[in-house]
Structure prediction request, 347 residues.
Amino acid sequence: MTVNNLTLLHNIEYDSTNEQYETLNSLIFFTIVYILVLISGLIGNFIVLFVIFKNNDLKHFTNYFFANLSAADVFVLLFCIPTAIHDIWAKDQWYMGKFFCLINQYIESCATSVSSLTIMAISFERFIAICEPFKVHDIFNETLTLTTIILIWTIALILSLPFLIFSVYDPLFNPTDTLNNTSNLITICHLDANSSLARACITWFIVILIFIPFFILTYIYTRIIVELAHHRVVRLMTITKSQQQQQQQLDDESFTSGLVSNNEPQQSPSFLVYKRFEQKRLNTVIICLVTIAFFACQFPVRIIQLIDMYLRVRNEDTMPHLVWIWLWKLSKLLFFLNFTANPIIYN
Prediction:
């Protein structure tokens, strides 16, 4: 049993050779995909970290938050994907020792917390930059950003403790439930969500760091989109008016001198302001895409966790075993894809 499975064991055997063949194909498929995610994710995130810290022009508080996201991504990729590959082939047994059993989901949860809180911080900075542009440099600076990052990691480490406390490493598990039969003892590792306290802690973790931020960020980005649309219309009207005045001035000068001027209207100050506004808009779009990707990759696995804890659907009467396995594996794959997608979005 692995930390990726919450409470129950998969003890169903398949007699059909076709089903076994399909299962083998799925093992190979997920193994290859996980390896590709691991390699591409590490390369992409290390490039982001290298570029930000080596380029003085990029040492900006917003980019420090992006570097923090990449650091969290690297931790998940290094610790959790090898474990996920182990899970694919180990069936319901655990071969990676007690340390990795206890630390795996804790690191995974910490990274989720860091990503959620960092996205909240970046989005708040974008909200101030768009809606209150004259206050952004008064509120955000390098010292405050670094302090915020330290605070984010501290909160993440604390909020993720339930995944450390309720992880169970059992080297003497008896899958037959027969006291006299000790020959089939196996080592398992799982997150014990049987107690009310464990379910409450895990549920509040998901609510506080996934669902509540989702609704807050939905409101923030709705406000940002409305503000950007308004500013875009106003600035375009200003540029058009400025270019018309400039062209009129050139025509008057040409008429006065009796010459035809071939000079193109030069870029007006309002046009330069508009270009800066467009760059600000592009940065906001990037952060918005990162936010959408985060929640799109988090929701499936978190919803399945909640269903598994409260509805106990993982049995043959409610759902075929193979269907449940595929749902879980696909949701976990989507979860890991988020940690390799961020560098692609930045670029």
